[in-house]
Amino acid sequence: MKSLEELRKIKERALLRRQMASQGAKARIIVAMGTCGIAAGARDTMSAILKELEQRGIADVTVTQTGCLGLCEYEPIVQVQVGDQEMVTYGPIQPERVPVLIEKHVLGGEPVTEWQIKQ
Amino acid sequence: MTVFRDLSQHILDIAENSVAAGATELYLDIREDPQTDRLGITVRDNGRGIPPEMLAQITDPWVTTRTTRKVGLGIPFLKQTAEMCDGSFEITSKPGRGTCVTVSFRLSHIDRPLLGDLVGTLLCLIVGNPNLDLIYTHVVGERSFTFDAHQIREVLGPEVPLSDPEVLAFIRETLYEGLQALGSEAVTS
């Protein structure tokens, strides 16, 4: 059974991780979670993102949600912004595409142009 | 027919409304009662609420606060799903105080969507919305389990985000174990 004591120990290690990640978050990932997004599977996409970050032990990437972006045909939509580079909007990003997206863009800093939504 | 595969997606959808309304607290109550053959879900928030004129028409698909599209299908679909399963849908709101959505289903109804990946859903909700505290109670028969994000934040302090990988794993396991102990459909099916 999970205990708050265990959580306290996790806190100590987490604080160390925060200190090591120099200027806070090095990248932002935003998942569109409007009704259309959820219907297209955005929840599974976000779960895949969280799992990938967790498995790689990445602690300095923030993952947040936003509402409908009005590009419903491209759902599930994921936006990635690394450092002070431009934000890139991707879609559709099914769970299977997540590992490559994290590897290439989030960690490697190189956008995956094939999946980018071109306006 | 239904736009969402399972009920956890409906819950996520309603919770996103709460987030959009500026809620900082989300009370989620799920009750599986095999004795009365009912499944009840309540989502209550402390967001800005819905004005009475809009509330009266909220189950109309053409009524929405979305600016990107002219339809808001989440609430109408949930209402329809509930009513299809000998259930009910109710929404109340007080502008400036918050909104409450209460939905029920006949637990054993053949068309009743399963709860689905509730743990994954709640994790996304918790991580994706750092300004939202989730207070979640799940009851199966006589047993209950509660998760309170306040407690977690109190221990972690302001510097450690809930999205820290170890914290995330802790929350996932806490939810999973809690639901398993209840014998909830969300982890046994």
Written description of the protein model:
The complex is a heterodimer of chains A (119) and B (189). Chain A is α+β, with helices and mostly antiparallel strands and 119 residues long. Chain A has a single domain (25-115), classed as Glutaredoxin (3-Layer(aba) Sandwich), CATH 3.40.30. Chain A contains 4 helices and 4 strands. Chain A is globular and about 50 Å long. Chain B has helices at 7-20, 52-55, 74-84, 118-128, 149-156, 165-182, 185-188; strands at residues 25-33, 38-45, 88-94, 98-106, 133-140, 143-148. In chain B, helix 1 runs parallel beside helix 4. In chain B, a hairpin with a 3-residue loop joins strand 3 and strand 4 (98-106). Helices cover 37% and strands 25% of the residues of chain B. Chain B has 189 residues and is α+β, with helices and mostly antiparallel strands. In chain B, strands 3-4-2-1-5-6 form a 6-stranded mixed β-sheet. The interface between A and B is large, with 39 and 43 residues.
